[in-house]
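Homework help thread (please don't just give me the answer)

Our assignment gives two proteins as sequence + structure token strings and asks us to describe the second one. The first is just a warm-up. Here they are:
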Amino acid sequence: MTVAVETGLWQLDASASTVALQHKTMWGLVTVKGTFTGVAGQGEVRSDGSAVGTLTLDASSLDTKNAKRDTHLRSADFFDTDHHPEITFAVRSAELRQDSTVQVVGQLTVRGISRPQTLVARLAQADADALTLEAELTVDRAQFGLGWNQLGMIKGLTAVTTRLRFTRVPA
């Protein structure tokens, strides 16, 4: 699919978007999966075809289907949502390639700590009024102050998968 995405402002459709994570725990024996239910975002496609934007997650909206674990993830041991209620990904540049992939360069901020992040997304669907981007990335939680690791139970990187649907904002 080779498409040109319309220039202008785009708004994230939270009801049609997902941001999920997976992480190995219990010494790699158990995979914890969760979804952020509070997701917002917007972007702008410029006349040269490049794009910028922001994705914001409500850190306290992470749902792993285990209330006790979710409470712990909101605590100062992990996301510290009382002091850092949002996780943000600021897209500094996004370039659509001929193979319908998008090279994304941005900055991920978790717990007030920002780190550069580069990833390749896939333009899964696009028309004049809507587009869907899919991406997978890995995050080293220790780089963001998420170092709690009782008895060495938590190992490896966190896998994040996204499916983000944007709709065009009428001019």
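The one we have to describe:
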Amino acid sequence: MQQRKVVVTGLGTVSPLGNSIPEFWNNLIAGKSGAAPITKFDTTKFKTKFACEVKNYNPLNYFEKAEIRKMDPFTQYALVSTEEALKDAGLELDQIDKTRVGVIWGSGNGGFYTFQQEIMDYARGDGTPRINPYFIPKVIVDIASGWIAMKHGFMGLNFTTVSACATSTTAIIDAMNYIRWNKADIIVAGGSEAAVNEAGVGGFGALKALSTRNDSPQTASRPFDVDRDGFVMGEGAGSLILEEYEHAKRRGAKIYAEVAGGGMSADAYHLTATHPEGLGAMLGMKWALEDANLKPEDVDYLNPHATSTPVGDESEMKAVSKFFGEHKRKLLISATKSATGHLLGGAGAIEAIISIKSISEEIIPPTINTQHIDPGLPEGLNIVLGESRKHSVNVALSNTFGFGGHNASAVFVKV
């Protein structure tokens, strides 16, 4: 039996570069940075005082007060981005079989903001557990997928992926496979994160994972640069509508790209560090392209994980250099976390959107802030620096890697 083809018909976002796809994309290709001093808490005693926060976001523009009390920001971002994606897909929700519509939504931390808030409130009290009755439903990581389904009546498969910073790429790969297996016709896939708070910034800071370039936040995320000193925390959401190709064709849907393959692997090496030779990363890319029935030389654009950490960037580029061989000289690479920051569990979805838009718009967004390529990186890499580049993209590959050694790579192809 012929494998069912999976395509993307809708996109949506809440992000540090804008709260809609047009605003986000225009700022990204213009080379703007989403980084700025943190506004959500007092950073006086923190080593890192900046992040890529979501801006100009007021939940009252999207939800009733009673709803807001029941939702952590990570769930709000999920719902807002999905609303845009559904509208973008042109779905007439009263005319489709909702038992064939699923949701696979990822988050690395879930209701991190709510968890911190409730525990701090308890600690300031007299020991009486005056806990918000919505505490648990706001915190649990799977609640965003539940909210999306309840909001729109989607009764198909529904679950959450958690693989740290590979999370929402994993969600997209899972969604692709479930549609291939005829378990659904449409799946909302993506991820969201809202970890710009004391616990998030303090915790990642304690790991020495964050940049401390407080004198110049907008230039702090500088993947591949010899002076990179850590990643910049981001927040927000990316939502994609994945749909079976014939189903999309029958309803005359706009098709952005095909989700052609996915590969997942484990470094089996270290709690937080990537394998120094990128062995797991190579496996993920290899299996993703094999799944798509493509070869390394077929790939036009790579959106790498490239968080701007000294060890991570180097190990990934070693993997890229070895896996792509001489094709690395033609392969266009741009590290968009330089502009968005690192959205943790939401990173894969945002970068899938970027990869898909590079196909549909024939524009490669730039790696910003990088001035001096680290001489320790492999030679011959074709990194798009400073400005966007017009270029036809038929095949895009997106990499995301997470603490615990999780690797996920997704392949998107022009239809």
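TA reply:
I won't write it for you, but here's a hint about the kind of observation we're looking for: The radius of gyration is 20 Å.
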